[in-house]
Design brief:
Length: 120
């Protein structure tokens, strides 16, 4: 089993078929992996991360987020649309104002663990 981690063992004679098959059956489908890659792509933008962190702390409207981050409402709206498309953010209307918040506890967990990781 030690050669399983040895890069030099990677020729067709040493393929560990049991391991390969076990992992093959555990792999999510291509559509799921594509969606996961898209989710992580969204996390790859510092403006979107800043917006998510703001919403981690408090539900807010576009104008408040724009004021806090020193950006235009248009720029914030554009990023919120991208965040809503991948279900990281949700919106609720109160009169004429739309308030944004993180979509669910999964998003809070992802952000919280990410922050913990980079602060170690």
């Amino acid at each position: 089993m030690e050669d399983r981690y040895n890069v030099e063992c990677c020729d067709y004679i040493h393929i560990h078929e049991g391991i390969v098959e076990r992992v093959r059956h555990q792999m999510p489908g291509e559509d799921t992996l594509y969606d996961l890659a898209e989710l992580f792509r969204i996390f790859g933008d510092s403006t979107r991360i800043r917006i998510l962190y703001v919403l981690f702390e408090e539900e807010m409207c576009v104008c408040d987020i724009a004021q806090l981050l020193g950006m235009t409402q248009s720029a914030i709206s554009h990023q919120l649309r991208a965040l809503k498309n991948v279900r990281l953010v949700k919106a609720r209307r109160e009169g004429k104002t739309i308030f944004y918040s993180l979509a669910d506890d999964h998003v809070k967990t992802i952000l919280g663990q990410g922050i913990d990781h980079v602060c170690e």
